[in-house]
Design brief:
It contains 11 helices and 22 strands. The chain is α/β, with parallel strands linked by helices. The chain folds into 2 domains: 290 residues, ANL, N-terminal domain (Rossmann fold, 3-Layer(aba) Sandwich), CATH 3.40.50.12780; 115 residues, ANL, C-terminal domain (GMP Synthetase, Chain A, domain 3).
């Protein structure tokens, strides 16, 4: 029976010290979000009893796959050999050495946080807790400066917080990998202007972290890299539908899902070792350009619409709206099934906890209508709702399916023509 571990927020040094990434015979570990364990009821116990005992493996949950607040996620079984392959390739790409210091600010129940531990163990680098129990941009900067960090890994949401606070990067930091989602070019430029050495990357839980990352040489440029070179351990191709497939030494062993008191395990890889990511992309001479998660693309009036692009436009509207100046507002765009349109785009906005109340919904809608005047009809947000919170994963990704299900329920809503 695998051991269930719910790492505490921040760098759990006890857990970090006990995982020997070179031990392929070690008992399996289930690394679960402590918040999920606390609210899941019987689900966590079922996972511990029903997930298979795979020696030398760790089980981590894929982001955003939970069918409900306490339901079982889809579990990914990663061998320590796969995690090592990823770590070695990232070390090579970043030219990481024993003298490096990693500023750790990602949860250990995600491959982003785990990968840092494996990279440091292979290279001999030091890992320092830069989160301190919860994410705070000013605390991250302070801790990274105090430990003279040279390397780090963040998600776009964290970079956004650093930029919004106007925080400049420590001079010792030479590279910071950005994963967990596509980085907006405007955010990249703002971060680089503050000295943050951002290297956009692409990877999945199923690949034990990144498989393509911007090169160190890209830091000499000011524009955001789009074509990302593949790392040494992986290769990619794009099929006729524009879907990215990946093959390499860091791929998962299997998926496991638990339903009706039974566990079902299966290997999603094709017979020749290729894994279909479901993400959309283009191959260039310089590498892979990922254009979005397949799940982030919907059809409106028969036309494909990429939700992150609509979300980025909405963020620009909020940033320049005088009524919201000085206010901290979270936002996300979801697609709700619509009988005529195919999908209706809905903007959800949420004021920060303890912050000021948002202005009148009517005023916000009028401002949004003016901002969208030049937008294509299929890309227009047609409804706006103020919500208490926007559901996100531990890495800050919007759980769009859960948000869409909430926005589909009858509510006091306003339409934007």
């Amino acid at each position: 029976m695998p051991e269930l571990v719910a790492p505490r927020p921040g760098l759990d040094t006890a857990l970090a010290g006990r995982i020997d990434w070179k031990d392929d015979a070690a008992a399996a570990l289930i690394l679960a979000n402590p918040e999920w364990v606390a609210r899941s009821g019987e689900a966590a116990g079922l996972a511990r009893r029903l997930l298979p005992e795979l020696a030398g493996h760790v089980f981590v949950a894929t982001s955003g796959t939970s069918r409900g607040e306490g339901a079982q996620p889809r579990w990914v079984a990663l061998s320590r050999r796969a995690v090592r392959a990823s770590a070695a390739a990232v070390n090579l790409h970043l030219r990481a050495e024993a003298g490096d210091v990693w500023a750790h600010a990602l949860p250990l129940f995600h491959v982003g946080g785990l990968g840092i531990l494996a990279r440091a163990q292979l290279s001999g680098a030091r890992v320092e807790d830069a989160a301190g129990g919860s994410w705070d941009p000013e605390r991250f900067l302070r801790r990274a400066a105090e430990c003279r960090a040279t390397l780090g890994a963040l998600v776009p949401t964290q970079v956004h917080d650093l930029v919004t606070a106007g925080l400049k990067a420590p001079r010792t930091l030479r590279a910071i990998v950005i994963g967990g989602g596509r980085m907006d070019p405007a955010l990249y430029r703002e971060a680089r202007a503050l000295g943050w050495p951002c290297l956009p990357s692409y990877g999945l839980t199923e690949t034990a972290s990144q498989v393509a990352t911007a090169p160190l040489e890209s830091l000499a440029e000011t524009h955001c890299p789009t074509a990302l070179p593949m790392l040494a351990h992986a290769e990619a191709r794009v099929d006729r539908d524009g879907v990215v497939w990946v093959r390499g030494a860091s791929l998962l062993t299997c998926y496991v899902e638990i339903e009706n008191g039974r566990a079902r395990a299966w290997d999603p890889r094709a017979a020749d070792g290729w894994f279909r990511t479901g993400d959309l992309g283009v191959m260039h001479a310089g590498g892979l350009e990922v254009r979005g998660r397949g799940a982030d693309t919907v059809k409106v009036l028969g036309e494909l619409v990429w939700l992150p692009r609509v979300e980025a436009e909405a963020a620009r509207w909020l940033a320049q709206e005088p009524m919201l100046r000085g206010m901290r507002v979270d936002l996300a765009v979801a697609a709700v099934p619509h009988p005529r349109l195919g999908h209706e785009l809905v903007l959800a906005v949420s004021p920060a906890a303890g912050g000021s109340e948002l202005p009148s919904t009517d005023l916000l809608l009028a401002s949004l209508r003016r901002f969208q005047a030049a937008a294509l009809p299929v890309e227009r947000v047609r409804r706006l709702e103020v919500v208490e919170t926007i559901p996100r994963t531990a890495l800050g990704k919007c759980r769009r399916e859960l948000l869409a299900s909430r926005l589909s329920r009858p509510a006091a809503t306003r339409d934007v023509p």
